[in-house]
Amino acid sequence: MNNIFHKSPFFISLATSLVTTLIVISVFASISVGGSALSPIAEETRRAEQAYLGETESVVVDTVKHANPAVISITVRKNVPLIERYYEDEDLFGGIFGVPSERYEERNFEEREIGGGSGFLISTDGYIVTNRHVVEDPNATYTVFTNDGKKHDAEIIDKDPALDIAIIKISGGNHPYLSFADSNNLEVGQSVIAIGNALGEFRNTVSTGVISGLGRTIIAGSLGGQSEVVDQAIQTDAAINFGNSGGPLLDLSGRVVGMNVAVASGSQNVGFAIPSNNIKSAVDSVRRQGKIIRPYMGIRYVQITPEIAEENSLSSSRGAWVVSGVGPVERAVVPGGPADKSGIKEGDIILEIDGVEITSGKSLSSLVRDKNAGDVITLVVLRDGRQFTTSVKLGEFAPR
């Protein structure tokens, strides 16, 4: 027999009336005859709910008080040409009709604020993490405003375009700073707090929400027309707006679980953040070597999906397919690189790294990113229908 549960207005209205009646009966049943006091069970439940809400609110308030001093705003200024408008009389009939036309000319330059973003201090000596796209213009100047209203000139230390991370620095000492949590321990539904320079105007704006998803892969585009792939992103419903880029996403202990990077266009409360472990590896690299160093294998690959496997008659529906692109610069295997030295060839399918399967939720690049330059990793490779194991010593790549 087929189910015929249609959500018609009548059915919904009738169901609502029945539920309302039951609620009313239940409420009256729990009220004592002589007054309005709730039953002991209902009263205990109400008090527990109020206590929980009060404790949660208190935790959020305390966390924001702790974190706010370490969250900064960034303004971007640049010399832009002044456009001057002129009116000219181009009447072809001797000035009888006198219709003016407009002409524009660039004359002189003026420094203007052209953008902004957010960031957060990660050390007492002034190191700050933000998004690469916030400080991407080499011809612009960047000013940091700390929570106490003080103004600081920012020095760009290094940028990592592959992960949209930048490390900048301000002078001085005894700065408040935030610590990182382990983003591998995050859970969907976990409460989080986002802080940032919303719309580039409202500094240290606070929003709360939960982690809506993990391991997302998104294509993030900037207002300048650039785009990049961000994998392993954290999805959250905490409100993230333009200008929040680079701000921290915090757990209720005040530790950084991610850095706000993008918002889904046309959506409500669908934002994304870069996981803290990816940020921490860049920070550790700068602290050790003065620049961002990334491990690399020296291959170009395509993440296999069932559709790609079918279209190309591949023998596996998952893994990283080593394949060349267009032109000599997009070789499948970099000559003399780590993968080349280990015998990896075009057409190979890499199935595992150190026992972890490469899937849609675990890309090869994200697994390599968790390693360090110089580490030796073990690969399970599929070639011509046969699996074998090989080792690769990861090289050192400075993504400037």
Automatic annotation (TrEMBL):
UniProt cross-references to InterPro entries, sorted A to Z: Chloro_Bact_Ser_Proteases (IPR051201), PDZ (IPR001478), PDZ_sf (IPR036034), Peptidase_S1_PA (IPR009003), Peptidase_S1_PA_chymotrypsin (IPR043504), Peptidase_S1C (IPR001940)
Species of provenance: Candidatus Taylorbacteria bacterium RIFCSPLOWO2_12_FULL_43_20
Assigned keywords, A-Z: Hydrolase, Protease
Gene3D superfamilies: 2.30.42.10, Trypsin-like serine proteases
GO terms under biological process: proteolysis
Descriptive protein name: PDZ domain-containing protein
Annotated SUPFAM superfamilies: PDZ domain-like, Trypsin-like serine proteases
Classification via Pfam families: PDZ_2, Trypsin_2
Residues of the PDZ domain: 307-385
MF term (GO), any: serine-type endopeptidase activity
Family the entry assigns: Belongs to the peptidase S1C family.
